[in-house]
Amino acid sequence: MQRIGIFGGTFDPIHWGHLLVAQTALSQVPLEKVIWVPSFNPPHKTAVLFEHRGEMLKLATRENPAFTVSLVEAKRSGTSYAINTLMDLSSCYTNTHWYWIVGLDTFRTLPRWYRGHEVAQMCDWLIAPRLLGGETIAQSEQICKQVEQQLKEQSFTIDWQLLNIPLVGISSSLIRKLCRECQSIRYLVPELVRSYITTHSLYSGKSE
Ligand code: ATP
User: Fold this and answer.
1) Does the model's pTM come out above 0.90?
2) Is the beta carbon of 190 within 6 A of some atom in ligand 1?
3) What confidence category does residue 33 fall into, taking pLDDT thresholds of 50, 70 and 90?
4) Architecture of the domain defined by 2-167
5) 12 ligand 1 Cβ < 6 A
6) Where are the domains of the chain?
7) Is 135's pLDDT higher than 80?
8) Distance (Å, whole) CA 129 – CA 137
9) Which of 6, 21, 127 to mutate to test the pocket of ligand 1 (most atoms within 8 A of CB)?
10) N or C: which end of the chain has fewer CB within 10 A?
């Protein structure tokens, strides 16, 4: 049975933090492949055109043969939900054990996701610690255990492990903010992504 990771996100834009998370997932489990899935119409967020985000993902991941970009969410209308993505990908990749790759900030919202309890049980969870509220690694583990407990109280089980990565303070919002302020984003995103953002004048006048 092959082991495949799904890394869903808005990727508006993709940055080095995302790439480090995906690479760590590949080697830590280890996985055969990571499928990057940009949200077509993410709940709770507005983002630049799907085509731009998909293109930047392809540029950033093309050197790694274990990375694939899937545009599966563009095939559905309405809001993009994880459960649909997982079911669509499962029909393309049979005989697969699935892993969902996620940052801690997103993982802690899992009990509130649309059909989150089902998604929780359909794959293993690889969680990247993230310094948002000043959490330490020990606190990250505590937060994951709380999510596990919340699900358990409703009779759902979940398998998870923390990814062993150094905390990376990069976020897409930081990149967008720097672009708006005409500051450099060099070394925060891959060079090809930086050039793409400049060429297409992305984020320069966007208000959040
Ligand atoms: P934004 O700043 O716009 O909220 P983001 O940087 O969180 O964006 P997303 O595309 O929303 O990027 O993230 C996709 C996934 O990657 C989420 O699960 C998020 O938690 C995770 N992630 C993003 N950046 C990091 C990081 N620096 N460290 C760990 N996980 C991250």
Assistant:
1) yes
2) no
3) very high
4) 3-Layer(aba) Sandwich (3.40)
5) yes
6) 2-167
7) no
8) 7
9) 21
10) N
